């Protein structure tokens, strides 16, 4: 029992760390924030398909990333909530491989535009931000995430083993 908790915690911590590193890379390239966001880290949002440890891992990784990239406090809260909702949705739909990227795409496309409009007072309309954020999420979660899922599926019993 204790070894399962250690494994869960270790997986969650590694996922959080990967999320932060990939977000910082995207941030250095100017892709992590603003109206059009292509965070490489968002490809990791398919990981709840493999392990429930990805849910806290992604959420904590998002909180840390948003703090490190200088996001406003409400962005940290609501952006991280979008990631949490997406991760839970992916876990709940884990029986359907093709559905893995849909919850994070939907959660971010609905929540992040309001953050951009009301927290950052960005110029543009909610529908415009939904379009731009949605495009970035489709690229990050839909394309990159599904490529990652296909690669990891071959090694799922090694990487995401549940027994220690």
TrEMBL record:
Segments traversing the membrane: 12-32, 44-68, 74-93, 105-122, 128-152
Signal peptide: none
InterPro entries listed in its UniProt record: QueT
Keywords for this protein: Membrane, Transmembrane, Transmembrane helix
Pfam families cross-referenced by the UniProt entry: QueT (PF06177)
The keyword Transmembrane helix is annotated on this UniProt entry: yes
Protein name, as recorded: QueT transporter family protein
């Amino acid at each position: 029992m204790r070894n399962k908790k250690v494994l869960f915690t270790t997986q969650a911590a590694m996922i959080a760390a990967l999320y932060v590193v990939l977000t910082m890379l995207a941030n250095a390239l100017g892709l992590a924030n603003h109206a059009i966001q292509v965070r490489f880290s968002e490809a990791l949002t398919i990981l709840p398909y493999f392990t429930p440890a990805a849910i806290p891992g992604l959420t904590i990784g998002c909180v840390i990333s948003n703090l490190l990239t200088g996001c406003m406090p409400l962005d940290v809260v609501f952006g991280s909530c979008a990631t949490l909702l997406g991760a839970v949705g992916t876990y709940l739909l884990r029986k359907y491989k093709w559905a893995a990227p849909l919850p994070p795409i939907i959660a971010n496309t609905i929540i992040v535009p309001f953050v951009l409009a009301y927290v950052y007072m960005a110029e543009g309309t909610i529908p415009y931000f939904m379009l731009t954020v949605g495009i970035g999420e489709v690229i990050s979660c839909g394309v990159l995430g599904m490529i990652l899922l296909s690669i990891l599926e071959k090694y799922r019993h090694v990487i995401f083993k549940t027994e220690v």
